[in-house]
């Protein structure tokens, strides 16, 4: 959304300065720490992933209750194929069962499901399930849950670049506005709040383009222990920040008065 001062429209190098609100419209989460959660309890890593699915359920419900419009979850990165084959195949099976179990519930609660990433590497059955779940929930408006699967921020920028070039034959100069509609999450505003659980303070090739101005929140809590209360703490920390989008504090204060 553009902000106007007189007849001058201010645009940041990313997008127009967006309106901000007390509750973040879009929360993006790197759900990390499943393996360590399990190892700490002398359980196999997979137990942590199973428990992690339960944490997703709690956070989705909490987002609905708090009026968050978009929740984006990093479930499997393009680099996670490097893990041992049995862990990868278990994660795929978990994805299938979670879809089987949760989609009807999501639909009943007016939640739209999107899955973004390079889905071509998934087996045909999973691809079908994803397409069906997206189709079924496409008209829902309460909350959009995006699962990033075989997603990488660099992959996203590259696939968008390819589409942009194709859509503009013969053109050699491009702008951000021409690229943005081709990004995998073009249907959503950029994340207001980014959360990473599990103690690491890095982006791990998540939404590189879209996180340009997100507020970052890192917590040591392992993902399976991330409760709605922990989500509220992250939102509370977000509410204490002053989002300036390149402006001065005084300019920001003037706008909100
Ligand atoms: C995050 O937990 C889930 C996925 C990457 C699929 P991890 O599996 O990375 O857990 P840690 O970081 O090893 O504890
Ligand atoms: C990031 O976690 C990806 C997901 C949570 C899906 P990783 O555990 O794979 O990240 P690194 O390897 O610690 O950077
Ligand atoms: Mg990890």
Quaternary class: single chain
Poorly predicted parts: 1-12
Instruction: Name the ligand types.
Output: 3-methylbut-3-enyl trihydrogen diphosphate, magnesium ion
Which fold name fills CATH's third level, the topology?
Undecaprenyl pyrophosphate synthetase
Helix content: 40-55%
Beta strands, count = 8
Helix- and strand-based class? Answer: alpha/beta
Number of helices: 8
Cα distance, first to last residue?
19 Å
Number of domains: 1
Strand line-up in the sheet with most strands:
5-6-4-3-7-8
- Percentage beta strand: 15-25%
Summary keywords:
257 residues; disordered N terminus; 6-stranded parallel β-sheet; alpha/beta; binds magnesium ion; Undecaprenyl pyrophosphate synthetase; binds 3-methylbut-3-enyl trihydrogen diphosphate
How would you characterize this protein structure?
With 257 residues, the chain is of the alpha/beta class. It has one domain: Undecaprenyl pyrophosphate synthetase (3-Layer(aba) Sandwich), CATH 3.40.1180.10. 41% of the residues lie in helices and 16% in strands. It has 8 helices and 8 strands, in the order E-E-E-H-H-E-H-E-H-E-H-H-E-E-H-H. It has helices spanning 34-40, 45-66, 85-108, 124-137, 153-167, 176-179, 228-239, 249-256, and strands spanning 3-5, 8-10, 26-30, 70-77, 111-116, 143-151, 193-196, 215-218. The strands form 2 sheets. A 6-stranded parallel sheet has the order 5-6-4-3-7-8, with helices on both faces. It has a two-stranded antiparallel ribbon with strand order 1-2. Helix 1 (34-40) crosses helix 2 (45-66), helix 2 (45-66) runs parallel beside helix 3 (85-108) and helix 3 packs parallel to helix 4 (124-137). The protein is globular and about 55 Å long. The structure holds 3-methylbut-3-enyl trihydrogen diphosphate (IPE) (2 copies) and magnesium ion. One 3-methylbut-3-enyl trihydrogen diphosphate binds at residues 30-32, 74-77, 80, 200, 202, 204.
